[in-house]
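Tip: read the tokens left to right.
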């Protein structure tokens, strides 16, 4: 069996994969390859035609395709090979990648390092257990976005959106601009899971009501969706009898969460975090399998593509360093979720990092006038105050290398949110 060999193989040519490839090539890695199952590079950004991308990275406002094109152009400038229309079937623990394409058939590629950048997918209706008929007119928000922006089809004219994730909020505006009537956005939690700016720009600016602590309790229609029933929920997320509202509609869009695409990760033996549904990684984005790295939305779901790119650049540099280094791994410090925190990344940090370490997490609820506190035993490493922490916006805290002086890994680092006592507010 003939096998090809590359130093670094990147799976996925979305913003994460492109950024990782660019960083590795700029670090001098000549032998690298990017595999992409879609017909074109760019990932989900190709269908995100709204603006608001690139403010952090480029200091200007771009559409999704414009943002993606900048990385595509840079990859072409650097001579990075991107093979589209190629599906990766498996990744082995010893970094043998099995892939297939119409052009080249079945192939086996040995890699010195593999970077997982497959992105994420939307949670489907089946995961919600919502009662009702299986009629036409029910779509994930991302599918509807693809229909409207790339394929030129309108899913419907009278729309209800379940969930207040960013894609759902953006599609509320998009459907309105295309002439549809968005009747409501319904969120089971007492707070929105999307960015505040999207609530303002996509709902408030178009007088679209947001029903917090509500959910869809029934779906009606035979061939085509005819109506949905919405009810308020209690603190245990159970529908409250007598609060039902019926919305006559022909379309229900689901924006109920994103799930990292980790089938390949699991097949490679990578340890998965139950909090993020992505890989458990070190501060160099290396997974539990040596030489396999993960970055972007396959690692944990981000709010902004700018942060995906920043993280993936660092993963690309780390993979390049792995190829060149023969040094034994150092001791590690575990990073744990504390009060009010869910899904901290990374989950392991070197005891003596040479570079600043960025820790990212999501608050588990809304906290006002609180502080994010990172500590190890009795030593406080960082304290960051904020007027509000919300699950819709990821928190990023950076620890300088000197913060780790005296830490030997015997105690974990804990990330928590501390609220002020009531009398001090």
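Filled-in amino acids:
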């Amino acid at each position: 069996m003939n096998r090809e060999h590359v130093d670094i193989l990147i799976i996925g040519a979305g913003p994460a994969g492109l950024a990782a490839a660019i960083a590795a090539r700029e670090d001098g890695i000549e032998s690298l390859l990017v595999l992409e199952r879609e017909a074109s590079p760019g990932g989900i950004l190709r269908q995100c035609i709204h603006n608001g991308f690139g403010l952090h990275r480029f200091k200007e406002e771009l559409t999704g395709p414009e943002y993606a094109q900048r990385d595509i152009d840079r990859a072409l400038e650097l001579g990075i090979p991107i093979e589209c229309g190629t599906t990766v079937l498996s990744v082995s623990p010893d970094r043998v990648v099995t892939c297939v394409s119409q052009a080249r058939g079945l192939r086996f590629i040995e890699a010195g390092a593999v970077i997982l950048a497959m992105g994420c997918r939307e949670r489907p209706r089946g995961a919600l257990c919502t009662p009702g008929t299986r009629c036409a007119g029910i779509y994930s928000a991302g599918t509807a976005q693809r229909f409207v922006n790339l394929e030129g089809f309108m899913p419907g004219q009278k729309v209800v959106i379940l969930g207040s994730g960013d894609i759902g909020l953006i599609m509320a505006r998009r459907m309105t601009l295309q002439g549809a009537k968005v009747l409501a956005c319904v969120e089971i939690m007492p707070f929105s899971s999307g960015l505040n700016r999207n609530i303002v720009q996509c709902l408030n600016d178009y007088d679209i009501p947001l029903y917090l602590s509500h959910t869809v309790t029934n779906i009606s229609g035979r061939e085509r969706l005819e109506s949905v029933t919405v009810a308020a929920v209690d603190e245990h997320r159970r529908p409250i009898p007598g609060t039902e509202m019926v919305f006559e509609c022909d379309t229900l869009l689901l924006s109920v969460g994103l799930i990292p695409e980790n089938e390949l990760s699991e097949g490679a033996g990578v340890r998965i975090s139950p909090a993020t549904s992505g890989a458990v990684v070190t501060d160099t984005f290396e997974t539990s399998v040596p030489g396999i790295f993960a970055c972007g939305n396959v690692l944990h779901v981000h709010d902004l593509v700018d942060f995906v790119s920043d993280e993936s650049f660092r993963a690309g540099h780390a993979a390049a360093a792995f190829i060149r280094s023969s040094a034994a791994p150092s001791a590690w410090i575990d990073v744990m979720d504390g009060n009010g925190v869910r899904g901290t990344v990374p989950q392991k940090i070197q005891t003596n990092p040479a570079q600043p370490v960025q820790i990212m997490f999501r608050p588990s609820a809304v906290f006002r006038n609180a502080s994010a506190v990172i500590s190890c035993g009795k030593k406080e490493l960082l304290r960051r105050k904020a007027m509000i922490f919300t699950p819709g916006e990821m928190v990023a805290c950076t620890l300088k290398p000197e913060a780790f002086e005296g830490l030997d890994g015997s105690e974990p680092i804990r990330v928590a949110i501390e609220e002020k006592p009531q009398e001090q507010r």
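The chain has seven helices and 27 strands. The radius of gyration is 23 Å.
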